Fold:
Amino acid sequence: MVLFSAPGSSALNVLSAPDSSVLDVFPSPQSSTLDGLPQSSVLDLSVMAAIRSLGGPDEPDVYTEVALLFLADVPVHLLALRVAIAADSVETVGQIAHRLRGGALEMGALRMAPLCAAIEQAARAGSLEHAAAQSESLDREFAATRMALEQAIR
Structure:
């Protein structure tokens, strides 16, 4: 899987897709904390742990670096999504939603990913009205994800 990259730069390969289904990466109900952080319905803590494990003990926190890239890139993509919806560009809406969904899954943004998938599906069906409604929900969900990520990387 590829995490977002800034426009004009190459993508950052952070985490390979697991052999199991996507559902297998969601946290189990028994898992309530990780490194003192409470389990969140916004973030999948197992994804956070997996990304953090990529770094060494004397290296900067990989998760923090990746989260900062995600937090910088998503607003650019959300703006592009709004512009594409306003321009009735079904193909572009689908492409942007697909990129956003991939990034959300890679960061463990549990509630963002399904909204992105719904926007992508709406674009495939040619329903930009539905995509626009879901886009508003995605904006709100990104705000919650931003808060959770900022707390996680403090």
Strands lie at 2-3, 12-13, 33-34, 37-38.
